[in-house]
Amino acid sequence: MKSPKLVLIGSLGVLASAAKSSLSPRGNACAALAASLPGDVSYPNTTAYIQSSYYWSDQQRETHPQCFVTPRTTSAVSSVIQILTRHNAPFTVKSGGHSPFAGGSSIANGVTIDLVHLNTIEVSADCKTVSLGPGNRWINVTEILDPLGLAVVGGRDMNVGVSGFILGGGISFFSGMKGWACDNVRGFEIVLASGNVVYASPTENADLYWALRGGGGLNFGIVTRFDLAAFEQGTMWVNSLTFPGTENATIISLFQNLTIQGMPQDPAAHALLTFSSSPSGENRAIVNLFHATVPSPQNSVPAVFEPFQTLPSALANTSSVGDVSKYLKHYATPYGGRWTWGNVILAANFSQTVLDEILAHWEERNAALINSGVADTSVLVQAIPVNVIEEMQKNGGNALGFKPSGGPLVLVSFPTSWTDPRNDKLVEDSTRKLIADVETTAKKYGVLNPFVYLNYADSNQPVQRSYGDENYDRLKQIARKYDPQSKLAQLWTGYFKL
Ligand SMILES: Cc1cc2nc3c(=O)[nH]c(=O)nc-3n(C[C@H](O)[C@H](O)[C@H](O)COP(=O)(O)OP(=O)(O)OC[C@H]3O[C@@H](n4cnc5c(N)ncnc54)[C@H](O)[C@@H]3O)c2cc1C
Fold it and tell me: Name one GO molecular function term (predicted).
């Protein structure tokens, strides 16, 4: 992991003078926050400010607030929200800081509420519920739960924050057995725009509970505690295979079979497929297979994954077992770099022609980017099998709108990273064109599902509208009910707003 201290120092002098000279409501808001929460408001050029400025992507780190406020209790969060709404001060909220876009959980000149100190982790006496403060990252959670033989449906990267991950959906190693993370929240403690603290669960404020499962946190309030369903979990089995790009057709067909038939028969199975390219033109298909239980004997392969093992062309094939924390560390994407992504959902039974056209769009874009020195692009394919969609129906269903009758799906996303800010427009425009081209292809062959997954969306994708008119209207009504003056809509900046 890169040091946070090295990143921002060059630009902080300018920011300090900007902050001091301001007499705006925002400046007054920082002063009012400092008076209410002494020691928990930081300004540019201080260690606390630099620590709070530590985000995963460069675009977020470069977006500087006038001050950070770091509340330590739910009632302090309530005071913060009341002060900010009284001052009409634009603000945002940061949990793990892993949304990639400038302004995702950062704000230029406003106030950033950094939840870092709200990091409690409590396991209930019966071991059925784990309560998480919203400032936790997933590694903090798994390092407590692994030794207890417990797990929750959580992140696959150690540094991702619990809040954004859960509120957007949350695809986990354990989704086959339990659904996405949002489907496994027993209840949310949340501070509303009024400063009132309420609990949302299947039996209390059930409409808000529904909305918080996929509707995007910034539309409803600041969640100050997630009560998650826990379950028994020992070591996992993981297998990584690399194939030459010439095998793409075979690999995608095996992945489709796994999604449509294999996973529903064995919900402990989970898989990721990545198509990568290199400047030298050496394309690869990388298959990562996960099983929540270890096969017996340990050096065997779970039956559901056997078809991948018989291919003679694998360039690498490694298996291991370990606890959840081991794989959160292994699959962590390092901090730094500029990032964009976006996603398209397809019916899982798409034809080889569709894959060929999608990869052709991607390679056409790669050629343009590589000429400009942007080399790191990939296509990430993830399964949404029917067993996952069935789990999404529990507790009254979530806001995402998937139904088992819609059949199995795959989520295709396009993570791209680069370093030179002069390439921002080139990459962002090309990402949008790639998404549009892939959607056009999918529509042409009748395999486009309109859903856009919030956690992997490009900043201009119409996430909540993609949940369908009925769910979108319901989300809007719930937001209005809990924030009748639309204070959050006016003041909380970021993605993805209703
Ligand atoms: C390296 C990497 C790996 C990832 N792996 C996965 C994965 O395995 N599965 C998956 O589904 N997604 C994954 N994601 C996507 C990730 O879930 C989203 O980017 C998510 O938003 C990150 O959450 P965060 O808390 O770190 O983000 P932040 O940027 O801190 O917050 C995201 C959004 O949530 C809001 N917010 C933050 N805290 C609260 C709160 N307490 N109450 C209300 N709103 C709040 C913020 O204002 C912002 O709008 C990954 C992302 C990265 C960069």
Answer: oxidoreductase activity
Number of Cβ within 10 Å of residue 289's Cβ equals: 22
Q: Specify the pLDDT at position 5.
A: 27
What the block records as the tokens of 107 is 């704000």
- Residue length, the chain? 498
pLDDT at residue 279 in the model: 67
Q: How far apart are CA 326 and CA 306, in angstroms?
A: 24
166 alpha-carbon distance from chain centroid: 8
Give the nearest ligand 1 atom to 181 CA.
11
Q: Do domains 11-114 and 236-458 have the same CATH topology?
A: no
Pick the CATH number of 236-458 from 3.40.462.20, 3.40.50.2000, 1.10.3210.10, 3.40.50.880: 3.40.462.20
Check if 157 has its Cβ closer than 6 Å to any atom of ligand 1. yes
Q: Kindly report the backbone phi and psi dihedral angles of residue 476, in degrees, each rounded to the nearest multiple of 5, phi listed first.
A: -65, -45
CB 457 within 8 A of CB 496: yes
Which of ligand 1's atoms lies nearest the C-alpha of 456? 15
What is the rounded average pLDDT for all residues in the chain? Answer: 93
Angle formed at CA 395 by CA 394 and CA 401, multiple of 5 degrees: 65
Cβ of residue 214 lying under 6 Å from some atom of ligand 1 = no
Q: Is 333 in the pocket of ligand 1 (CB under 6 A)?
A: yes
